[in-house]
Structures are given as structure tokens and as C-alpha cells.
Specification:
The chain has 359 residues and is α/β, with parallel strands linked by helices. It has helices spanning 17-29, 41-51, 68-79, 92-99, 113-180, 186-213, 216-220, 223-238, 255-276, 305-313, 318-329; strands spanning 9-13, 33-38, 55-58, 83-87, 105-108, 241-246, 280-288, 291-298, 333-338, 344-351.
């Protein structure tokens, strides 16, 4: 077996059994896994649906009234799988029809093992690249849509806070000032004291609103202090205990890394609060050589990773996409491990860059 091939599954569609067996042996000899042989259009579609191969090797001439080109089009439309034609037909009319199915290769019989090996490798690589691009595009669309939604939601929330709290305080001060123009003596002192109290409340409201948008300690004291603060806040509100572990006396990290780490932890804690039913949470911030390693672990109910990824691609789990996007922007990689009843771990690995390196 070729060590570089990861046993990708190949379905062979060929109506001549001797030729099909020969192709099967060659495919296996190249290190791939032949999962079946189909000799008709109907059988090819049934086996594709049941076996879910990584690639289909398709002969054009098949038994029955439907040829391989029609089958290839159906496979691409229904299953999105790559098809490589392996046929003796080289006529221009056949090639034109085949091109419409967007095949990943066209091999004329007889063929060499090298030609088959190269075509299969390139077809599988191209399909994987297209799949990654398609998933990334879907994620970006979902993320862009969610960013606009969150932006409007945040604007609405800030507007309500300003109107209902700060606006009320300023209105009360205005009324008191108008009243103080008509009143003297002891009553004026009482109004002044009330104005001072209202102004103090308004200042607290402004500080709370600013802290919600971005904690000032992230800029003033650094990532460790901000993570300790959000850990304490989450623990006090949610009922689970949070332990924050980090190496002390570390230099300040680059601003973009500190922001990304803080937001990833913030999102992870939000998800734990909403869904995990956890009793204990641990946040670890370490340096391993030239890499930053950030882990958020909980002992909650966990979740199915495949279902989570499906929801994320559909735009229903946008928090995960946001964390992954923040990790990518700082040159890092985010991984999530979880299983039902096993808790979960979110891990960020990123370059270690200190503040002075960013000019």
C-alpha cells in the first residue's frame, strides 16, 4: 500500500466483469479501497447512496438504456461526489456530453497504472479542496449574516440602555436644575445633593455599559486580569465554579491576540452557561515554546460534535464560527472536543507574540 494514501473508497462502475475485476485490483494496488462494482445505472446510484464512496470510476457504456454520462450527472447532483470517466470512447460528441457533468478526470482505455494513479490522486485532492472552499464559503455567509444581526441587536440594546437609564437620569437632573432656580435656602441644598446622587448613578451606568462592550482592564491590565474578571463574573451569575490557571509575570501579549483570547473565553463561558449544566469549569492559559495555548474545559453534559458542525455550517451555531474566525485571524487554530455526557474542551493554539512586537 502506498503510505500517502488514506484508504479512500472507490466505487467502480463497469459492465464487463473481467475488466471491472482488473480495475479493482489496480485500484487496490494503488492503496485505495474498492468498495464495490456496479454494472448498470440503477445499481451505480443504489451503491453510491449506500456505500458513500469518496470517488466513482465510471465507464460510459453500460448495460441498459442509460449510459454512464447520465449516471455521472445524477451522482454529482444528488451526492456531490467526484466522478472520473474510464472509457474507450474518445469521440468529440461523447467528450462534449461528458464535460457537462464536470468530471474530475477522463481516462481512455487502455491506460497505465501511472495514469490511473495520477488521475485518482488529483481528482480526490481537487474534490477535497472544493469541499473545504464550499464549507468555508457557507461559514462566511452565515458569519456575515450573523454579524449584521448582532450589530443591530447590540445597537438596539445600547440605545435602550441610554434611553431608559442614562436618559432618565439626565432628565431628572434637568428638572432639578429648573426647580433650583425658583427655590432657595434648605430645599436648594437637598436638590443639589439629589443631583449629585443622580450624577453618580449615571456615571455607574456609563461604566457598566462600557464594561459590557469591552472591559477596560483588558486594555489597562492585560489578558490574565480580564480572564480572571470574566471567570469570576460567570461563576457568580451561573452557579458553577471557575478555576483560572496561568503563568504569572508574563509579558503583555499583542493586542489582537488578547482580544481574540478574551472573546473566545467569553463565548465559551456563555455556551457553558446556556447549555452545559456544568459544575466545574477550568480555564488554562499557557506558553509552550513559541505558542500560546488556551483551554476551556467543563464537566457538563457535552454534545455531539458532528451535529454541532452541521448546525454551524447552517448558521445555527454562529458562536462556534465566531471563535474559529477569531482564531484564524491571529494565525491560530481552534479545536473542540466533546461527547454526550463527557463534558467539553475548547482549545486555541496560536503564535506567542508580545505587545512590543506589534508596531
Amino acid at each position: 500500500m502506498h503510505p500517502s494514501v488514506n484508504r479512500q473508497k472507490i466505487l467502480i462502475v463497469e459492465d464487463e466483469i473481467i475488466v471491472a475485476r482488473d480495475i479493482e485490483q489496480q485500484v487496490a494496488g494503488l492503496g485505495y479501497l474498492p468498495v464495490g462494482i456496479a454494472n448498470s445505472a440503477e445499481q451505480a446510484l443504489e451503491m453510491t447512496e449506500s456505500l458513500r464512496p469518496d470517488l466513482v470510476l465510471m465507464d460510459i457504456q453500460l448495460v441498459g438504456t442509460v449510459d454512464g454520462i447520465v449516471v455521472a450527472a445524477a451522482i454529482r447532483e444528488r451526492f456531490g461526489l467526484p466522478v472520473v470517466f474510464l472509457t474507450a470512447f474518445a469521440a468529440d460528441t461523447v467528450l462534449e456530453r461528458a464535460k457537462l457533468t464536470e468530471p474530475f478526470g477522463y481516462i481512455l482505455k487502455p491506460f497505465s497504472e501511472r495514469e490511473l494513479s495520477t488521475t485518482l490522486a488529483m481528482a480526490l485532492y481537487k474534490h477535497q479542496a472544493e469541499t473545504r472552499l464550499r464549507n468555508t464559503t457557507r461559514q462566511l455567509k452565515a458569519l456575515s449574516r450573523r454579524v449584521l444581526e448582532v450589530q443591530e441587536s447590540e445597537r438596539r440594546r445600547v440605545a435602550v440602555e441610554l434611553h431608559d437609564e442614562l436618559g432618565q437620569s439626565l432628565t431628572a437632573i434637568k428638572i432639578n436644575l429648573q426647580l433650583s432656580q425658583r427655590i432657595k435656602d434648605q430645599a436648594l441644598t437637598d436638590i443639589t445633593q439629589e443631583n449629585i446622587r443622580i450624577v453618580e448613578d449615571a456615571l455607574m451606568q456609563v461604566r457598566r455599559l462600557a464594561t459590557t462592550l469591552r472591559p477596560s482592564m483588558l486594555d489597562d491590565l492585560g489578558l490574565a486580569a480580564a480572564l480572571q474578571w470574566i471567570a469570576d463574573q460567570s461563576a457568580s451569575r451561573s452557579g458553577f465554579s471557575v478555576r483560572f490557571l496561568y503563568a504569572r509575570a508574563q509579558p503583555r501579549l499583542a493586542a489582537d491576540i488578547e482580544t481574540a483570547c478574551f472573546r473566545i473565553v467569553q463565548e465559551a463561558l456563555t455556551n457553558i452557561t446556556r447549555h452545559a449544566q456544568a459544575a466545574q469549569v477550568e480555564i488554562q492559559l499557557d506558553r509552550e515554546q513559541d505558542r500560546l495555548v488556551l483551554r476551556i474545559t467543563d464537566d457538563g453534559c457535552g454534545f455531539n460534535l458532528d451535529e454541532m458542525r452541521t448546525r454551524a455550517l447552517a448558521g445555527d451555531s454562529i458562536g462556534v464560527l465566531g471563535m474559529q474566525e477569531r482564531a484564524t485571524l491571529i494565525g491560530g487554530e481552534l479545536t473542540i472536543e466533546s461527547a454526550p455526557g463527557k463534558g467539553s474542551t475548547v482549545e486555541l493554539i496560536a503564535p506567542w507574540r508580545i505587545h512590543e512586537e506589534i508596531q
